Amino acid sequence: MPQTTSAPLMTVTGSTLVLAPVPGRRAARAARAPGPYARLFAVPGSRAFTAGNLIARLPMGMFGISAVMMIAGQRGSYALAGAVTATGLAATALVAPWTARLVDRYGQARIAVPATLIAVLGSVALVLCVRAHAPAWTLFASYAATATTPNIGGMSRARWTHLLRGAPAAHHTAMSFEQAADELCYMCGPVVAAFLCSAVFPEAGTLTAAVLLLTGMLVFTSQRATEPPVSAAAHGGSPLRAVAPLLALFVPLGMLFGSMEVTSIAHLGAQGLGAATGLVLALQAAGSCAAGLLYGSLRPRGLRTCLLALCVAMALPWAAAATGSLPLLALALLLAGMATAPTMVTAMSRIHAVTPQGRLNEGMTLAVTAILAGISLGSAGAGFLVDHLGSTTPYALPAAAAVAALAVGTMATPAT
């Protein structure tokens, strides 16, 4: 049977007909369309503001544990350390929406830099008060000043929204990346803080976090070309009425996070895991980070679908803990984490959709405030259940919070 060969490609150079080069595998690979994240970071200015965003975001996972280790180490009281950080969380819930409103009204650089300076000074004051054995009230006042820290995640999302107008697929990829970045920083931040406070000196975690926050914010805000312009709509009323139905969804989501962390710490401690507890807990954040990046390359799903998957995933740690198997629990936490990122990305997209023009940073900060409130409730509830029912049964709380989120999400967004 005669063999057939493809005819060589010909091209014209001047008035001469010559053989054209046949593209090889390397050329074929180069000709392929870039992936969604390559296209995302090809947007002019995106890499620069993302670098500042990540530097400033890492301290968000460092401040709390740094303050606890510093205060408890110097004052010998975890009760005092916990009360100080709880006060800071409450102050953040009150101040953050106002800071976000000012950012929307007057611009990111104009507001975020002085707000960050106040927060950094509060952190430095906390260190000095702890070192000087100042009265306890000075610790509360110093840490409360850190509540002016701008919502760097919200400002970054606002930039993507401004840059990717009319490109919903790219916007979905950007929001997924931001959620993955949240998880990565909250996974790595406590590890870095614990190392600095224990291996260097007790104040090292807080001081390093303050330097990173200020440096990252200066880098981020210096990228003026990608900053969203101030809109006249930003001087209108609060977007609270528009986002209120969805805020009820973020409260049980926050309860899920808070109760899962406290319950897992108690359960793993009861199992005698010791220092490896942090590594197991990191699996949940790692799963969420990986799922967030993957979700950004896929077609977005409806909110109800994501919440249904979340309900199933949150039942897994409860079932695994009942078996007493640590490997099963570790796997269950990984899978539970993988369900949270798609849910958060989709829920935040709903906030984007309903927030009035020019008020996006405030709308997202209100959602974060609702999450913080839920975390506080979930942590307190899980602690109560651990004290009275042991460390296994409280895994029912994050599962119940997921069911509550599904019910609220279905009522708030029946069409999704």
Description:
A hairpin with a 2-residue loop joins strand 1 and strand 2. Helix content is 75%, strand content 2%. Mean pLDDT is 82; it is low at 1-20. The protein is an all-alpha fold and 416 residues long. The chain has helices spanning 25-31, 36-40, 46-57, 63-75, 78-106, 108-131, 136-145, 152-163, 168-200, 204-221, 240-270, 277-296, 303-323, 326-354, 360-389, 396-412, and strands at 10-13, 16-19. It contains 16 helices and two strands. It has a two-stranded antiparallel sheet.
Write a brief structural summary.
By secondary structure, this protein is an all-alpha fold.
Helices and strands in order, then pairings?
Layout: E1 10-13, E2 16-19, H1 25-31, H2 36-40, H3 46-57, H4 63-75, H5 78-106, H6 108-131, H7 136-145, H8 152-163, H9 168-200, H10 204-221, H11 240-270, H12 277-296, H13 303-323, H14 326-354, H15 360-389, H16 396-412
Antiparallel strand pairs: 1-2
